[in-house]
Amino acid sequence: MKIICIGRNYSEHAKELQNEVPKEPVFFMKPDSALLKNNQDFFYPGFCGNLHYEVEVVIRINRLGKYIEERFANRYYDEVALGIDFTARDLQNKMKEKGLPWEISKAFDQSAVLSNFIALNRFLDVQHIPFSLQKNGETVQEGNTSDMIFTVDQIIAYVSKFLTLKIGDLIYTGTPAGVGPIDISDRLTGYIADKKMFDFMIR
Length: 203
Ligand code: MG
What we know:
Layout: E1 3-7, H1 11-16, E2 26-30, E3 35-36, E4 51-53, E5 55-61, E6 77-85, E7 87-88, H2 89-98, H3 103-106, E8 112-114, E9 118-119, E10 130-135, E11 138-144, H4 152-162, E12 170-172, E13 180-181, E14 187-192, E15 195-201
The structure holds magnesium ion.
């Protein structure tokens, strides 16, 4: 199982980090050892001095595919979850300055928070999902998948040109504006519409 993460998929977020709005999707990966599930505590890593949350809608691939056409991409998923792409922003900025890969800032243990999955259906359209993140009870990020620069189907078409997608692979679809730091003893709670998807503590 692999975890594919899309960067800069909401223009307001690209701007807040002074990044250009991309013309093609940008993706990077996390290993399966990065997963944090079941509302377990997150342990603030000692190598990081500026850890940021990025709340993201997550798609799980349910069919094997390669070179998937955009118009058929919706056959490759039927559930969504909410996740956090934890980012060691200080390390990421250092690597970006040097033009080096981001893994030490993105792929570390517990950096991929994942909720349970809920079914997509006529009440929940993948490109009209409202989602939000609260830190200590205060809303810090709010987004809607209708604001994505690249749709889920475009992402699947693009990524599957390079990688074979397998059953169980996860795609973190990018974060809206409002990313920010967390500290030990903070509590993070994520919602899809009014449904609480995860709720856990930073230790
Ligand atoms: Mg992200």
